[in-house]
Write a structure and sequence with these properties.
It is a single chain. By secondary structure, this protein is of the alpha/beta class. It folds into 2 domains: 190 residues, TIM Barrel; 57 residues, Chitinase A, domain 3 (Roll), CATH 3.10.50.10. Helix content is 28%, strand content 27%. The protein contains 7 helices and 14 strands. β4, α1 and β5 form a beta-alpha-beta unit. α1 packs across α2. It is globular. It starts with a strand and ends in a 19-residue tail after the last helix.
Length: 272
């Protein structure tokens, strides 16, 4: 039976929370910025695990070659096993960065993780497929990803999503809800809550005099487990998720505890 790999994203200051768990930490501490250069937001980044680099401050200006070298040097200096490119924008320089790092990392045995839009530019990289859907089927979504990228490259990015959709919803996007807002809505409406086997998520509907029909879709510990189990049935065993969302459901998700090292018996003699 294949063993699961859980990659947990979190700021370095929260790293002590992972003690005792068999997970790979992914450090939320890096950002691409003007120059372009790699900026580290936290001076206390430890050794090991994965770098997470986002593009929120990236303006697309300047040569990308030196930036790729900065990323590579930081990974080597910190003993990282690879990097996650958390790119939300779609710019040609970011595509160049993904392509260059894909080649350089593969040559050095480092792992690279990209979202789906950058997968064509990084043929060696692992591809992160988000677990949250507003329509269709998660199983079919993962089957299509496997057909495109192959079993060894697909990673399921688990996330707790809470959204309130107007009906009809032509864009497939809803209004994000905080956990508190969702609970207040449920307490006020006392709705009948259902489970969607296709989406692996819970939902309910309600009517508003001001805005008409609504469809609320949300996740909890059980739905995250359903999503992970759907991936396992397709032989996908690598999962990415934030520690804030994993922590309440760690054992339920199947994240294993580390075995404590047995202390040597007292009074024994060393053997040569």
């Amino acid at each position: 039976m294949a063993q699961d790999t859980f990659i947990i994203t979190l700021p370095p200051r929260q790293l002590p929370a992972l003690r005792g768990w068999q997970v790979t930490p992914a450090h939320l501490a890096y950002r691409l910025g003007p120059g372009p250069h790699l900026f580290r937001a936290d001076s206390t980044v430890p050794r090991g695990g994965l770098m997470v680099a986002d593009d929120q401050d990236f303006d697309g200006l300047g040569p990308t070659g030196p930036l790729c070298q900065e990323i590579l040097r930081e990974c080597q200096a910190r003993g990282f096993s690879g990097a996650i490119l958390d790119f939300e924008n779609r710019l040609p320089p970011l595509e160049q960065i993904a392509a260059a790092l894909d080649e350089q990392f593969a040559r050095r045995g480092l792992a690279l993780y990209v979202n789906e839009r950058y997968a064509p530019h990084a043929p060696h990289a692992r591809v992160m497929i988000p677990s949250a859907l507003s329509g269709g089927s998660l199983r079919r979504r993962l089957e299509e990803a496997l057909e495109r990228f192959g079993e060894s490259r697909v990673v399921l990015a688990l996330e707790t999503r809470r959204e309130d959709f107007f009906l009809p919803s032509p864009t497939g996007s809803g209004q994000p809800l905080s956990e508190r807002e969702l609970e207040e809505l449920k307490q006020r409406l006392s709705p009948a809550v259902f489970f969607s086997g296709d989406l692996c998520a819970r939902y309910f509907t309600y009517m508003s005099r001001e805005s008409g029909a609504h469809f609320v879709l949300f996740d909890d510990g059980d739905t995250l487990c359903h999503k992970a189990d759907t991936a396992r049935q397709l032989n996908i065993h690598t999962f990415l998720l934030p520690w804030a969302e994993a922590a309440p459901h760690a054992a339920q998700l199947g994240i294993q505890k580390k075995q404590e090292a047995k202390s040597p018996r007292s009074g024994g003699h060393a053997t040569r």
